[in-house]
Design a protein that fits this description.
Layout (H helix, E strand, L loop, with lengths): L5 H11 L28 H9 L18 E6 L1 H5 L6 H4 L4 H9 L2 E3 L12 E3 L5 E7 L2 E4 L2 E10 L2 E6 L4 E2 L4 H9 L10 H9 L3 H4 L8 E6 L1 H11 L14 H9 L2 E2 L13 E2 L8 E3 L8 E3 L7 E10 L2 E6 L6
Parallel strand pairs: 1-7, 8-14, 9-15
Antiparallel strand pairs: 1-2, 3-4, 4-5, 5-6, 6-7, 9-10, 11-12, 12-13, 13-14, 14-15
Length: 330
């Protein structure tokens, strides 16, 4: 699936390590090849580890053969960005399936040379895998999806690098297929969202959440398995395995699930800040706390504490999914 993009990724991984302006030579000098600068920046060790995990060489500094300019634009997450996902080293990266990891890093790469003055509010930026990303302004700060651009226009011999504070995530699938991919270990090597998938199937909501992008796009707050288990403890019921969901009335499960879905076109964290939003099931609004340091927290009327987005900003074909650590109660 990814062989077509191999030469793009080879150049990408050498480019991302050249994401510090201190590496740029005096304009009177010819720019050094990206390959010469691979080891010069210690802030991108996790990306280097990712290249190794994918069995891809990162020493190439050739021009982009798929673009007339010969250039790439790379949105490069630094080590701190990976640390937000508890991905600190090569051992942590082994918890991800290689195909998903490869798709993820390619999502950070564009053909051509996209300078910062072209990153305008609302623009859609296409990645080399054909999935677009959205440019969002929050005050004077610029984001791509929910990731803040913390350095721009770092020049390399074969393109431009912009540095991010969060990893861009996409599944290339619709919301239901994304949840199934997590359940069936196509993303992590351990299953996740097993309770949520069971609840969606039980409540017969899979069809609605599989709508094509032309029909509806959603923001979905997806409780993790740990969130459902904690809910069982809070309510004094047994939610030890996903099938335990079916002990609850179907209409109650459906109402709770619809409290996690917003038909708003799909919003990234950068687009939600101290707002109240109406869930698809109606009733009491969800409250969104102040957007701070790339994080958001969400409140439901029946919750004593806010839910935190533990893995935010997962771009699906028909919306955006945020994995949260609590079930939101109407």
């Amino acid at each position: 699936m990814f062989q077509h993009h191999t030469k793009l990724l080879l150049a990408f991984f050498v480019a991302i390590l050249f994401a510090d302006a201190s590496c740029v030579k005096d304009p009177s000098d010819a720019l050094p090849s990206i390959a010469d600068l691979v080891v010069s920046n210690p802030d991108f060790n996790t990306l280097e580890d990712a290249a190794i995990q994918c069995n891809l060489v990162f020493a190439l500094s050739n021009p982009n053969a798929d673009d007339p300019s010969g250039d790439f634009t790379v949105f490069a997450p630094n080590d701190k960005a990976f640390a937000r996902l508890n991905l600190l080293n090569s051992d942590d990266l082994t918890q991800l399936k290689t195909d998903f990891l490869t798709q993820t890093v390619l999502y950070h790469v564009s053909n051509g040379n996209l300078r910062s003055n072209e990153l305008s509010e609302g623009n859609q930026s296409a990645s080399v895998i054909g999935i677009t990303r959205r440019i969002v302004f929050v005050g004077n700060d610029r984001y791509i999806n929910g990731s803040k651009i913390i350095a721009t226009d770092v020049r390399a011999a074969n393109g431009t690098v912009h540095v991010l504070d969060k990893v861009l995530l996409t599944t290339g699938l619709d919301i239901v297929q994304s949840a199934l991919a997590l359940r069936d270990t196509h993303v992590f090597k351990t299953p996740e969202l097993t309770f949520l998938v069971e609840a969606v199937l039980y409540a017969e909501l899979a069809g609605a959440l599989s709508a094509s992008p032309g029909s509806h796009s959603f923001t979905v707050f997806a409780p993790t398995d740990a969130a459902f288990r904690q809910l069982g403890i809070d309510l004094g019921v047994s939610l030890e395995v996903p099938s335990d969901i079916r002990q609850l009335p179907k209409d109650v499960v459906a109402a709770v699930l619809l409290h996690h879905v917003v038909a708003d076109g799909g919003k990234f964290t950068s687009e939600m800040n101290q707002t109240r939003i109406k869930p698809l099931g109606g009733g009491t609004d969800l409250s969104i706390a102040k957007f701070s340091n790339g994080d958001i927290a969400i409140g439901g009327r029946g919750n004593n504490a806010l839910a935190k987005a533990v893995i935010p900003d997962i771009h699906a074909t028909n919306g955006v999914v945020h994995l949260i650590d609590r079930v939101l109660l109407p």
